[in-house]
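Review session, final week

We close the course with one last complete record, chosen because it touches almost every idea we covered. It is Thiol-disulfide isomerase/thioredoxin, a protein from Kribbella amoyensis with 193 residues. Go through it on your own first, then we will talk.
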Amino acid sequence: MRFRSRTPLAVVAAALLLLAVGCGEDKAGSTPEATGTAAKLVPCPVTESKPPVSNGLPDISLPCLGDGPDVRLADLRGPLLINVWAQWCGPCREEAPYLAELRKKAAGKVQLFGVDYLDPRRELAVKFAAEEGLEYPHLVDSEKQLQRPLRIGGPPLTAFVDAKGAVVYVHRSVFTSQQQLDDLVREKLGVSW
């Protein structure tokens, strides 16, 4: 026995179209929840255009994870730490409290920028940075633009940049203590507090 549906084909097609639109691919970080959390992050600053320097950060621009404009890395000068991380990276989570504490202790003496690297879940990256108290600007490198210039094997990685904009040291592993991080800042950037 065969049943015939009384629902017109046009109604079924319209319902499927609405369902497809409602379930479409969401742009990472564009949900109201992620956008609201992104507003809790420190906005990225407008940087003054400067010529690239020898041994400096690469001449690329990365979008801000929170609010604010794209940032051209070659414009940045130190003393500065660029910390490459991802929310899925266990060691990045381990060292996050040390970076948050450094930001508090060395405020006004050392700048920090985070770079969310190869992270497929922008909303989780925003949540991680906010929950860990990483109160400094964060950029997004979802296309591995920093991989070659900084020779990134994977996160975490931290570049130390001097006042002239030169990368003077790259730490290619997790910080294991606050003392280790503080000592490297003093040794590599000549900054104490």
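Two points worth writing down before the exam:
The chain has one domain: 28-189.
The CA atoms of residues 101 and 140 lie 22 Å apart.
Good luck, everyone.
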